[in-house]
Amino acid sequence: SGEDGSPAWLRYAPPPHASSHSSLPSSIITLNSTRGSPLSTVQQELYRGIQGIFGKTLSQGNPPNQHGTIIVGTAQAYQKSYGEFDEAKKIEEDGYFLSSEGNQVLILGQNERGALYGAFDYLSRLAQGKLDAISYVSNPHAPIRWTNEWDNMDGSIERGYAGPSIFFENGFVTNNVTRVAEYARLLASIRINGMIVNNVNANATLLSPRNINGLGRLADAMRPYGVQLGISLNFASPQTFGGLGTFDPLDPAVDAWWANITNQIYARVPDMAGYLVKANSEGQPGPLTYNRTLADGANMFARAAKPHGGIIMFRAFVYDNHINESNWKADRANAAVEFFQDLDGKFDDNVVQIKYGPIDFQVREPASPLFSTLRDTSTAIELQVTQEYLGQQTHLVRPLGGLAGVVNVGTNMTWLGSHLAMSNLYAYGLLAWDPALGAEEMLQDWIRLTFGHNKKVIETITDMLIKSWPTYENYTGNLGIQTLTDILYTHFGPNPATMDNNGWGQWTRADKFSIGMDRTVKNGTGNAGQYCPEVANVYENIETTPDKLLLWFHHVNYTYRLKSGKTVIQHFYDSHYNGAATAQDSVKQWSSLEGRIDNERFEDVLLRQKFQAGHALVWRDSINQFYYNLSEIKDDAGRVGDH
Ligand code: GCW
């Protein structure tokens, strides 16, 4: 659609009492800016922001004037014109120094991108009415802060819930890149510096000359915002697309093919971030076909990208989806460590991208044991912002975390298909920058920027969002049994029966008497033993395993008593009633905001909350009835049973 996207948290709306701030700077000096560079974006953004927030037009000020000036640029350029300053030494790559005392403002980046982040930070403070004097250096926690988009060449998006792609249509890169630039702007404001634009289940036709040129168009649209483009590759491309007889990573002809195609891409996108590769997973081709290791496969791409400074993200999400449940020791959660442990230190300039949980973006999982297994390999954490297993953006659920985030933006004007889901993207970016940020503080910044300063609005939305994850966990899968959603067809709605009796390995092993995966070393799949000893002991031992992960690590009777004193089955029943009740309350909470936010967004969110409330009842009753039918154990409160 040609429609603009919602401004999300970049509304630049006036905070209360905006007009009384006469002490704002009235001019701007931009050091060393070239056209189309992040620094020229900084300048535009400051004009636009100060205009929107205060109705004031900045003038070009050189030299600095007594009415106050914003000086923005790289720290290096500043020092050339104005002399050294102490903080300069502390600014790291992509970082910035921000100082604002009344009408004198300095925004100095280590590079241009850093200056852009500093400007967005400054504007965010102004829009929130935070006008106190400040002076600090802000540096990123990690250099790679990317999003992964799962867009297909035909314009559909795998696990996308916000309409078709903004990047591709009908097999080609789209011509109109307006929304791409707007999206890059949003990402820059939360300090994301790279974006993989196509699905990890990759299509080799992306590498055609026409599409490489298209990728150039996308990169050109993103560059002013400091967001570098990257792509996912299909491992078999040399054969399926290049016409070679093989895609063996140790065959010199294959090597030469990748080097050549990589040179072509870099000729059009000289600052390309790099490649993302899903190999030997869920039917995707990979090096194992030729009895080569995963490291052999990854290193082939590293060789091709090295001359250009590109980064290879190689996914650790490798597992066999035809495992046999009748084998008590079979366990998909063991796969990543089994595939990668002997390869530690054998990856050239690659980063192994590890999903947070050992299975797959479930509502509750322990962290993957691979993080502590790989000691001599760079690793990145992969998180899911798109709510594949968490209600597909129709349910309100807010995760926390940082580094490669699967976002799946679409043409929908809300970007993710839900106004409130944008809090997840906002938090993802800022946590990738600083994982120590407090959830509530970040959330309230986001609410002020998105919905304004009304106290009741802030308090209500904070409460709704902070509760949303435990609420969803309550009415879906409890105690670490995974989400219990339909895993075979839709990934939506309750379907606990689909978890078992198939090769996908997301098993619950529920029978008439008992439930849970025995992942102990002494009697089960041995998965607990993949953790470092301190953690392994906690999970191996049922007494020390926290209730929330009990059924992830142990197989117990429904009548087993939790630390809370409840039985497992009663906990299921109660949690489902509690979670579904909270979902009903959310509708009332949101309704109480009528008139306090604009009608369009009010109605849009209300509709979703109502849908979620209804669907939470469906979840509650299907899950409770399923386990009642299986166990025939009555609910103490008499709610579940034969009717
Ligand atoms: O969770 C699964 C998803 C697939 C996805 C896969 C992956 C892109 O259901 O849709 O494929 O993970 O992360 O590779």
UniProtKB/TrEMBL annotation:
Main localization of the protein? secreted
GO MF entry, a single one = alpha-glucuronidase activity
Q: Which UniProt keywords apply?
A: Carbohydrate metabolism, Glycosidase, Hydrolase, Polysaccharide degradation, Secreted, Signal, Xylan degradation
Enumerate the active-site residues: E282, D360, E388
Please list the residue ranges annotated as the Glycosyl hydrolase family 67 catalytic domain: 130-397
Please give the family membership noted in the entry. Answer: Belongs to the glycosyl hydrolase 67 family.
Q: What is its EC number?
A: 3.2.1.139
Q: Which GO terms describe its biological process?
A: xylan catabolic process
Q: Which organism is it from?
A: Paraphaeosphaeria minitans
Question: Which lineage is the organism of this entry classified under, starting from the top rank?
Answer: Eukaryota, Fungi, Dikarya, Ascomycota, Pezizomycotina
Glycosyl hydrolase family 67 C-terminal domain residues: 417-639
Gene of this entry = aguA
Q: Which residues of the full protein are shown?
A: 16 to 658 of 802
**Catalytic activity, as annotated:** an alpha-D-glucuronoside + H2O = D-glucuronate + an alcohol
Q: What does this protein do?
A: Alpha-glucuronidase involved in the hydrolysis of xylan, a major structural heterogeneous polysaccharide found in plant biomass representing the second most abundant polysaccharide in the biosphere, after cellulose. Releases 4-O-methylglucuronic acid from xylan.
Any idea where the Alpha glucuronidase N-terminal domain is?
Answer: 8-122
Q: Does the keyword Secreted apply?
A: yes
Protein name as catalogued: Alpha-glucuronidase
GO CC terms, sorted = extracellular region
Q: Does the keyword Isomerase apply?
A: no
Q: Where in the cell is it found?
A: Secreted
